[in-house]
Amino acid sequence: MNKKGNSIIKLVVTICIVFGFVWFLIVSPMITFHNNEKKLEKAAKRYFEIHSNSLPTGSRVKTLSLKELYDNGLLEGDIEVPNSKKVCSIGNSWVKVRKEDNLYRYYVYLECGMFRSKIDHEGPEIKLNGSSEVTLGIDEEYKEAGVASVIDKNDGKLKVEDVTIKGNVDANKLGKYTIEYIAFDNLKNRSVVTREVNVVKTIGSTTKKLLNGEANFKGYPANNYVRFSNVIYQIYGMSGDNVMLVSAEDIGFVNYNKIDKWLDYYYNLLDDAAKNMIVSSKFCNMEVDSVAAEGIVDCNSFTKRRKIYIPSVVDVNKTLVDGNSFMKPSTMSWVSNTSPDGNAYLTRSYFNGDGFGKNYMLYDPNTNYGVRPMIVIKGASLIVDGEGTFEKPFVLSDFKKGKGGTLVNERETGEYLSVNGTLFRVIEGMKDGTTKVIADHAVGSRNDVVETTFDATKEVITYNPKDKGSVAYYINNAATKYYDTNYFAKHTIEVPVYKDKFIYGKEAKTNKYDVILSAPNMYEIFSTKSTLSVESSEYSSYWLMNTSEAKYTGAAVFFAGSVVDRELRVGESFGVRVVAYLKKGLVISNGDGSYYSPYIVK
Fold first, then answer.
1. Which CB contacts under 8 angstroms, 24+ apart, belong to 80-83?
2. 125-200 in CATH: which number?
3. Domain with CATH 2.60.40.10 in the chain
4. Does the reported pTM lie above 0.85?
């Protein structure tokens, strides 16, 4: 046979093989599948011959599942996927019957592996109004948003009124609720979509309930305390749907004219979760004269939108009840306003002398007083614990409790630690694995005050741990008997020295020393007197490390909480409060990092 004949034979053989594969893999299985569809339809017709009273009337549709046909003995053997022994889907295969033009028409849908009937078997697409996931504050009213549209591929746009809505939301009970939206096309193919409603305790809904129609809290409320980024704040009131908070204590000292810079420092210490809760807002900062300041409740000048600021005289005045308010601290704290002469206002619970009975006093903006940050947080922020009291403040979802065995260095700014029975507060976790902390209060008690003074033979006061005449020497050496220094690492401190006045960020120089214990830096977070405990709020004053090149000028915190940064009297003494660095590798055990339940350090 010649080459041409061989080529023809090969071509014929190839065609036969291809045809055989096509027949075996496609044509024959498809024929088998269609025959099975016919079996299904025949079985359904036989069913209605037996149960004629089950035939649908009007526009109704009757559905028979493959399982029902099996159960009624109307099919011989299993219907299998072509070319296999696998049984076709029992749950997803059916026959629907509907009366059309006085005749019953049968619609067969069979699902067998990759083979599926071409008949319409999918329900319509349901689109909801609003989100499919809703967070609802407890006691807030749940308003059903309903359905936006129902569209079927074959039947087109259907009526949203025909959608069945199932499920209820108990807005008075915490929990997750599911609302079902059920729709059918003309062939009664069913679709279901759901909306998840999570009823939670939010700061917004809780605040609205506590305020009971009032714009803000007044007087001395006992139920508006919040733990935010490990600082105790109090709820001031609502700001739209969001909530305004003000620190319940001074967080630091600063000159009025450097408040913005200091607040940036504080904001950068917040954890990311807390920052994400804060809403950029406008704060009152108008200029007022001293007479108007005592009663003004309307603001006519605001900052640009910003993350953090301080209260104004307007904010304080709105909370006054017979001259008393939680916005007036026992310490002396700046408010945001200035007077026409350029001085700035302070507020406190009471003033003496010329200020007796007043809510505000004017001071040089270059002096140092307390700062109480004010912020607005998202009303949807979750409350995960607490009762809103001073002892059990609301705890927000920015806080993640430390687990036993966690490194101290991994804990957050503001958390409390118990170190061999002494209470400390975390300033910052350092990159070298140590943890910078500050003692919660000065050493000693009302009946056993530990104090020291400067060397009066030297006109310039220096903070120098190597100089026996310096309070720094006493703190780094003699004060160690009050603390178990086995927990602390030796570290380098930078002591700020000012030319004349103490101005934040305006140091003339800094001196470096290696120490175990040191005094706080005036401008560092938590260097202010804590108002969370009797010991720290009523007892000893304490030295700060800040000094000046001016004659006898040093810095300390007076027992009332205000800063002494002036020429000191010879022999004037103050207490001892220390800053230290916990050694790396130390871990926490039980506790939640709060004042009343500090982490125990091991």
1. 80/112, 81/112, 81/113, 81/115, 82/28, 82/29, 82/30, 82/32, 82/33, 82/112, 82/113, 82/115, 83/24, 83/25, 83/28, 83/29, 83/32
2. 2.60.40.10
3. 125-200
4. no
